[in-house]
């Protein structure tokens, strides 16, 4: 564990609220990035970050100091994100209306040097296809993909967050990439 994180964790365990606040400030941006990429929605991501730190604070006594505090927080945030997505899916299954209010935030955006109308239309279609493809990934695949390709974690770190063997984490990333490629292939072919 990062020596500075270790000292703040020890202080927070002894009841120092300021020490926990330092940990929140230090890790909140990274947790927000993960939560946003997992949920695809800014408000949900903010809720996930808040819930993650609340869970971490409540479980601080159970934290194993041999582990990385950041990795532990990523695991909590990934689990909170998945809980949020499951709850959202259950809520949407109960809604009988099929209207799309357009409130869904975009997870990815394509950079455009020359934003022509054709390019903007294609970017919008790609964004929508990526969101749909990400929704089709299993929870493990989505988490592994986000951590590896958006957060830049190595496979060993991803495996620690997912609490699995590195080979299983690598396989989850591979399956996610394959599914995304299959889903996005028609757009790539059309753009050529």
Quick recap of the structure?
By secondary structure, this protein is mainly α. It is 74% helix and 0% strand. α6 (139-150) packs antiparallel against α7, α6 (139-150) crosses α8 and α7 (155-162) packs across α8 (166-191).
CATH homologous superfamily name of the largest domain? RNA polymerase sigma factor, region 2, helix turn helix motif
Helix content: over 70%
Mean pLDDT: 83
CATH architectural label of the largest domain:
Orthogonal Bundle
Low-pLDDT ranges: 96-110
Number of helices: 8
Query: How do the helices and strands follow one another from N- to C-terminus?
Result: HHHHHHHH
CATH topology-level name of the largest domain? Rna Polymerase Sigma Factor, Chain: A
Q: How many strand units?
A: 0
By CATH reckoning, the class of the largest domain would read Mainly Alpha
List the domain count as a whole number.
Answer: 2
Can you summarize the main beta sheet?
A: none
């Amino acid at each position: 564990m990062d020596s500075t994180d270790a000292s703040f964790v020890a202080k927070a365990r002894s009841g120092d609220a300021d020490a926990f606040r330092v940990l929140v400030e230090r890790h909140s941006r990274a947790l927000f990035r993960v939560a946003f990429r997992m949920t695809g929605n800014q408000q949900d991501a903010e809720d996930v970050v808040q819930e993650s730190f609340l869970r971490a604070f409540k479980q601080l006594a159970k934290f194993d100091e041999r582990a990385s505090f950041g990795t532990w927080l990523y695991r909590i945030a990934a689990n909170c994100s998945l809980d949020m997505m499951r709850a959202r899916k259950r809520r949407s299954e109960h809604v009988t209306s099929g209207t799309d209010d357009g409130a869904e935030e975009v997870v990815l955006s394509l950079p455009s040097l020359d934003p022509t109308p054709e390019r903007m239309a294609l970017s919008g279609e790609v964004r929508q296809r990526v969101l749909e493809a990400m929704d089709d990934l299993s929870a493990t695949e989505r988490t592994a993909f986000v951590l590896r390709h958006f957060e830049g974690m190595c496979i060993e770190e991803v495996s620690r967050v997912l609490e699995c063997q590195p080979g299983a984490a690598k396989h989850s990333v591979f399956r996610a990439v394959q599914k995304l490629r299959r889903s996005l292939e028609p757009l790539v072919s059309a753009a050529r």
